[in-house]
């Protein structure tokens, strides 16, 4: 009976644009990059097999060193995902049951679920409509007697207004923890995303600016105590040496921890890709400029990415190319028919997700977040994307809104 | 590997399949679908396990530890609940409960088999107890028939920590399907290990399966993306690992069989040593899976040194019982005791038992243990 049982599953939906047509433009691909880097990846994977420890091993240790060097973090701690990184970071920062964590209403769900998984309660704030980062004035208004943390998110192409948010945090005596999952390469005042408060995270989900071919993440911090706690909690609360050390699996547990160890094969892929990360980031900037030139004058497009000037030097990284449009769902359907992949980042704001219905928020609470959810669509965007593909995506959008491709 | 150098943790575990893994990584990394997590390979791997077990559902996830958390969450275990767990075992047994705000209540173990003692489980159930969570230990399945009876009689849920027992059968029911839900771990050293972290929830309850599927991927239902019904986890499965496990599945019974053959030999050689202070696990195949072969030795540390001097690695898995570890000690009643767990922590020593040990190596190890006990 079990043999033929059709069952629902948690698999991601197939990309609707994933027809086998050779000229489809997928939302994401790193196939050419992977192929180009193959000999370097294969060397590192072979080193993993030679060493014989396939998670939490020598390649992970090596990648942590490279990541610390790239970001300038004193400590980079490899874990299983960006989500786990947030949970571990919040726990390591001393989050107590019931603590309030001020988070934006517009982000990937992990921004808020990590707070709940760590034992806290998310307190939502609206976003700035241009940068999609947490609105500092809104953050100040959202602070309650329970608030102990503020967690800005750096989305898509630039950091939130971290200077203003640090002021809010100082004024209200809150710790700043950054959801910098998308923020690799983003810097403010020369300081990498994730290092402006107590610590931050990185996600290496495959489509990220630095992406694995599976789940992986990291915690970044300059604080030795936080780094030590995260390192122990990721391995069942064991605080002795466990990285690249088999017998460490029987060290006694000092705190109830998790298993959130990074796979060495993923670390091997990430190490190989990290070498050309800055080239990839420059390529992304050129692709963003190409999109900007082609999309700027199309009616029906409400917003294209705009990197705002901050008071201090800041460097943007185009991770996602997200535009806001009228008739978004119709446009997505049009592009899908033409074999062009898109993503709706994000269709439902966090405060209106069913999993947070018990928190008492309502439609209308955060108008900027809600408007973005109605209009936002992310276009194909990755270093392997070619300019003629950008041309085709933009022509298809122009055709949808004007009936003409030119 | 020579007779003089036998590490405890198996070396060159996947050497025969290294080329296969490299090819899979390249194929999936450059493939047209660019799907790396929870894709077709994962689905096929889940179906393979489900069909071979006769389970209603199998859900691949990030690790065996995470699988326990998914099951407990799906059962609604949380603040104020108590879950009875073994006092001797791996940290996730207690941490998975504590991380949900619930309280692990520790029961003592059987002095020889080292699995949880059903009578002590029964004694420790209170009106706050929501579940009991026995674990199979080393090579021995817990007494699932009696624990099933206790769960039914006392009206509590039954979670089976079968992380180490994939492939074991008890009364024709596979490990994992005695509980309402069970778990497997595929971390490299396990019987069906792989070159990375991963695990699975196995269940005979479709509703638990449905909820676990949502919980492992951020509370999404597998239909509409970015709609989150529940506060979920990121506990997913990588496609490269699923493809590798599919490739390795056909060889799993033979590897398990080789482990059991080695265990039979050890147990036969060690049976006469009981009077000399080295006690092997009970013999047999019923309710058994030889993931770890652990003897109870009166002079455990001396035996470990004796073996080390002869180039033989051994390992003390749980030198401190769970309720005495700093992470959990604050949660127990002062004066509470677990004498058999103390004894197991003081005496258990695990010997090498991986399938690619040669017969000569196995004999060499057995000789060394006998030499220690008899001189």
Layout of helices and strands, plus pairs?
The complex is a heterodimer of chains A (406) and B (375).
Chain A (H helix, E strand, L loop, with lengths): L30 H6 L1 H14 L6 H14 L3 E5 L2 H11 L7 E5 L5 H8 L3 E5 L10 H7 L4 E4 L11 H11 L2 E4 L8 E2 L2 E2 L6 E5 L13 E5 L2 H10 L30 H11 L2 H19 L5 E3 L10 E2 L5 E5 L2 H10 L29 H9 E4 L7 H16 L4
Parallel strand pairs in A: 2-3, 2-4, 4-5, 5-8
Antiparallel strand pairs in A: 1-9, 6-7, 6-11, 8-9, 10-12, 12-13
Chain B lengths: L17 H12 L10 H14 L3 E5 L2 H11 L7 E5 L5 H7 L4 E5 L10 H7 L4 E4 L11 H11 L2 E4 L8 E2 L2 E2 L6 E5 L13 E5 L2 H11 L22 H11 L2 H19 L7 E2 L13 E5 L2 H10 L16 H4 L9 H9 E4 L7 H16 L1
Parallel strand pairs in B: 2-3, 2-4, 4-5, 5-8
Antiparallel strand pairs in B: 1-9, 6-7, 8-9, 10-11, 11-12
Helix pairs in contact in B: 1-8, 2-8, 3-4, 3-7, 9-13
Structural notes for this entry:
The complex is a heterodimer of chains A (406) and B (375). By secondary structure, chain A is α/β, with parallel strands linked by helices. Helices cover 36% and strands 13% of the residues of chain A. Chain A contains 13 helices and 13 strands. Chain A has helices spanning 31-36, 38-51, 58-71, 82-92, 110-117, 136-142, 162-172, 224-233, 264-274, 277-295, 328-337, 367-375, 387-402; strands at residues 75-79, 100-104, 121-125, 147-150, 175-178, 187-188, 191-192, 199-203, 217-221, 301-303, 314-315, 321-325, 376-379. In chain A, the strands form three sheets. In chain A, strands 1-9-8-5-4-2-3 form a seven-stranded mixed sheet, with helices on both faces. In chain A, helix 2 runs antiparallel to helix 9, helix 4 packs across helix 8 and helix 10 packs parallel to helix 13 (387-402). The N and C termini of chain A lie far apart (57 Å). Chain B has a seven-stranded mixed sheet, sandwiched between helices. A three-stranded antiparallel sheet of chain B has the order 10-11-12. The mean pLDDT of chain B is 97. With 375 residues, chain B is α/β, with parallel strands linked by helices. In chain B, helix 6 (144-154) links the parallel strand 4 (129-132) and strand 5. Chain B starts with 17 loop residues before the first helix and ends with a helix. Helices cover 38% and strands 13% of the residues of chain B.
């Amino acid at each position: 009976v079990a043999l033929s049982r059709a069952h629902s599953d948690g698999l991601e939906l197939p990309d609707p644009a994933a027809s086998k047509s050779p000229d489809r433009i997928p939302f994401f691909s790193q196939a050419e990059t992977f192929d180009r880097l193959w000999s370097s990846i294969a060397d590192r994977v072979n080193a993993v097999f030679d060493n014989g420890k396939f998670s939490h091993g020598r390649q992970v240790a090596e990648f942590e060193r490279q990541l610390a060097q790239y970001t300038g973090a004193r400590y980079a701690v490899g874990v299983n995902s960006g989500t786990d990184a947030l949970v571990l970071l919040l726990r390591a920062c001393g989050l107590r049951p019931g603590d309030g964590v001020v988070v934006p209403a517009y982000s990937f769900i992990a921004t808020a679920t990590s707070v709940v998984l760590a034992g806290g309660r998310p307190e939502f704030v609206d976003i700035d409509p241009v940068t999609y980062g947490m609105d500092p004035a809104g953050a100040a208004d959202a602070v309650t007697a329970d608030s102990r943390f503020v967690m800005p998110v750096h989305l898509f192409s630039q950091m939130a207004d971290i200077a203003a948010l640090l002021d809010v945090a100082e004024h209200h005596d809150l710790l700043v923890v950054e959801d910098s999952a998308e923020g690799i390469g983003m810097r403010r005042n020369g300081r990498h995303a994730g290092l402006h408060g107590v610590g931050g995270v990185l996600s290496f989900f495959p489509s990220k600016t630095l992406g694995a071919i599976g789940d992986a993440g990291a915690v970044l911090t300059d604080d030795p105590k936080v780094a030590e706690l995260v390192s122990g909690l990721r391995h069942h609360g064991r605080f002795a040496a466990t990285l690249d050390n088999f017998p460490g699996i029987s060290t006694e547990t000092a705190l109830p921890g998790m298993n959130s160890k990074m796979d060495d094969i993923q670390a091997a892929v990430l190490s190989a890709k990290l070498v050309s990360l800055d080239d990839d980031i420059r390529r992304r900037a050129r692709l963003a400029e190409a999109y900007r030139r082609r999309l700027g004058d199309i009616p029906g497009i409400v917003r294209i990415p705009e990197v705002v000037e901050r008071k201090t030097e800041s460097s943007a990284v185009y991770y996602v190319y997200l535009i806001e449009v009228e008739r978004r769902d119709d446009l997505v359907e049009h592009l899908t028919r033409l074999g062009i992949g898109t993503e709706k980042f994000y269709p439902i704001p966090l405060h209106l997700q069913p999993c947070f219905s018990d928190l008492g928020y309502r439609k209308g609470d955060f108008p900027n977040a809600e408007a973005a959810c109605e209009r936002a669509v992310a276009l194909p965007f990755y270093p392997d994307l070619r300019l003629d593909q950008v041309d085709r995506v933009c022509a298809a959008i122009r055709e949808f809104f004007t009936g003409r491709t030119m | 590997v020579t007779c003089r150098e036998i590490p405890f943790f198996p070396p060159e575990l996947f050497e025969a399949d290294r080329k296969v893994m490299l090819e899979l990584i390249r194929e999936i990394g450059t493939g047209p679908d660019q799907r790396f997590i929870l894709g077709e390979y994962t689905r096929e791997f889940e179906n393979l396990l489900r069909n071979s077990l006769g389970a209603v559902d199998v859900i691949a996830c990030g690790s065996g530890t995470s699988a326990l958390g998914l099951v407990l969450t799906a059962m609604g275990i949380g603040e104020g609940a108590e879950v009875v767990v073994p006092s001797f075992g791996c940290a996730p047994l207690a941490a998975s409960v504590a991380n949900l705000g619930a309280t692990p209540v520790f029961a003592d173990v059987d002095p020889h088999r080292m699995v949880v003692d059903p009578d002590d489980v029964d004694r420790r159930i209170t009106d706050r107890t929501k579940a009991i969570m026995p674990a199979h230990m080393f090579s021995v399945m817990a007494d699932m028939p009696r624990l099933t009876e206790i769960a039914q009689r006392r009206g509590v849920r039954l979670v089976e920590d079968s992380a180490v027992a994939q492939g074991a059968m008890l009364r024709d029911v596979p490990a994992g399907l005695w509980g309402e839900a069970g778990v497997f771990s595929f971390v490299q050293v396990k019987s069906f290990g792989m070159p990375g972290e991963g695990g699975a929830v196995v269940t005979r309850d479709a509703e638990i399966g449905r909820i676990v599927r949502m919980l492992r991927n951020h509370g999404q239902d597998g239909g509409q993306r970015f709609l989150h019904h529940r506060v979920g986890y990121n506990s997913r499965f990588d496609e490269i690992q699923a493809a590798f496990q599919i490739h390795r599945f056909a060889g799993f019974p033979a590897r398990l069989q080789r482990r059991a053959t080695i265990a039979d030999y050890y147990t036969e050689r060690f049976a006469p040593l009981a009077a000399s202070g080295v006690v092997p696990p009970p013999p047999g195949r019923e309710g058994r899976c030889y993931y770890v072969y652990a003897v109870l030795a009166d002079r455990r540390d001396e035996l470990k040194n004796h073996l080390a001097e002869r180039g033989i690695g051994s390992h003390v898995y749980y030198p401190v019982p769970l309720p005495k570890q700093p992470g959990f000690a604050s949660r127990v009643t002062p004066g509470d005791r677990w004498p058999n767990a103390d004894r197991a922590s003081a005496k258990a020593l695990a010997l090498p038992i991986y399938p690619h040990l040669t017969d000569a190596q196995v004999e060499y190890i057995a000789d060394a243990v006998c030499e220690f006990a008899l001189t």
